[in-house]
Amino acid sequence: MTSRDxxxxxxxxxxxxxxxxxxxxxxxxxxGWFYLAxxxxxxxxxxxxxxxxxxxxxxxxxxxxxGYPMSFTVSCDNIAYEDDGRKVAASTGSFNAVADISSxxxxxxxxxxxxxxxxxxxxxxxxxxxxxxxxxxMWWPLPSSVSLRADGLSGQTDPQDDTDPVQLFSAxxxxxxxxxxxxxxxxxxxxxxxxxxxxAIGGRVLPxxxxxxxxxxxxxxxxxxxxxxxxRGQSVDIAKLDLSSGTARITVSGPISVxxxxxxxxxxxxxxxxxxxxxxxxxxxxxxxxxxxxxxFAAIAMLGKEPSLPxxxxxxxxxxxxxxLGKIKPVD
Length: 332
Hints:
Layout: H1 3-6, H2 10-53, E1 56-60, E2 64-66, E3 71-76, E4 79-83, E5 88-92, E6 95-100, E7 108-111, E8 115-119, E9 122-128, E10 131-137, E11 145-157, E12 167-181, E13 184-196, E14 209-217, H3 220-225, E15 235-245, E16 248-258, E17 264-273, H4 275-285, H5 290-301, E18 308-314, E19 317-320, E20 323-327
Antiparallel strand pairs: 1-4, 2-3, 3-6, 4-5, 5-8, 6-7, 7-10, 8-9, 9-11, 10-11, 11-12, 12-13, 13-14, 14-15, 15-16, 16-17, 17-18, 18-19, 19-20
Helix pairs in contact: 4-5
């Protein structure tokens, strides 16, 4: 047998190099996976310790990272936040976020209810859902989008803090998405089958509502990074806010802003579909003004089944077309 015969053939050598390459690649991937898992736990512990030094208790209980090698899964038994100084607290059920190896920059997270909240000036709340899912498309320096979808939403005052809890609302579904657009943040959202309990709004009665909207928060990227303490100096461009029930529909669009003194400025367009049906809803919600509402909307109905009216607010003074509506107090 010659030395030439003892050498591996070219196809065999290529196969060996391919196997070696795959082994090295898998070793690098494995090292990276376990490094990220350990780094995530370390960062979470450091963030929790930093908050605790400021008097804030926050954490993801029993944080675990799993899914190797086909995914990266982060889960914990519950999420809690408590700031005794501000008397603010919130907690939820279990959290589970998964990033598949095929789409590592698009993790999908599921959050279990209920969400319990406590804040000054509001009763403790108990908000629950059948399913709540978040989808994040990661990019640098900000995510390209963050979306939420919930099914079977309901809210009430927390039964643990109130012996006679008040039912607040329920909604069949709700969804929302945030996207950075330059320095602004765009919001698109919708909800369906929203029912607001009459006891939560002073005995007033509203039918089931559907809604959708699209708006842009000016300079929203900076505001998300450092939430403002006041609405003053902020502005929103409303592409469309739509609220409907049956044949009744109200659509609002246009810019609205708040100046440094808290005075509101807006140049809005209000479109109505079936004004008589809208009047019936408003009359049921505000029975003390039912007569005025019916008279006003009877005049509007003369403009057609889908009239459009300008709503202008200048330094807090509002008018609907040529009809003055009064003055809006400065906002904080």
